[in-house]
Amino acid sequence: MKITSLQDLKKIQKTIADAAALKAAQQAAELEKQRRLAAQKNLFIHAAGAVHRIPDKRKALLKKEQPAPVATQLKLDEQAVLVEAISDGFDASSLLETDETLSYRRPGIGIDVLQRLRKGEWTIQRQLDLHGLRSDAARDALSGFIRDAHKHGIRCVRVVHGKGLSSPGKTPVLKAKVRNWLVQKNEVLAFVQARPMEGGAGALVVLLRPS
């Protein structure tokens, strides 16, 4: 707008003043609107109290997958079997007494223990007969028998391995093996050849450590 007179200047000043007044009025109205909305919101919160989010029922609440149970007892049993395992490759000949019956006593066990075993001073409480068993089956049977006897507090047992009379060549296959196996068992303290009335050369009388 071209100013040609004082009157034109006054009109321009009035227009600017009116625009400023309108803008101020609009800002005041907006502030009042926000104040009222805030007041209404606070009023609702005070009236409703604490609120909680409603779970979305469209979502499945899945339980956290639990780790697979550890078979602790099974591991212990497997470890015990490994510890108790006896080998066919073990040669106990150097550990046996040099007498004709090849008796055995664990280090620290006195010679008197063998003497008492030979005299039958220990009562035989259990017996295992390995007649007719193959080597693997006999080994497993002997290991289980010794373990179970010791577990139940048995101190003296007899193991019948036979004289080999029915074996090929009349060779007592199990006789030497049974001695080798028994030496490997921690439960065994000593063993001697059985007396004639208890099986003689076909059996051993075995003393077990206290359970």
From TrEMBL:
- Report the superkingdom from the record: Bacteria
**Pfam families according to UniProt:** Smr
Q: Name the keywords, alphabetized.
A: Endonuclease, Hydrolase, Nuclease
SMART domains found in the cross-reference section: SMR
A single Gene Ontology molecular function, please? Answer: endonuclease activity
Q: Which InterPro entries match?
A: Smr_dom (IPR002625), Smr_dom_sf (IPR036063)
Domain Smr: start-end pairs: 128-209
What PANTHER family has UniProt attached to this entry?
Answer: DNA ENDONUCLEASE SMRA-RELATED
Tell me what this protein is called. Answer: DNA-nicking Smr family endonuclease
The organism encoding this protein is Rhodoferax ferrireducens
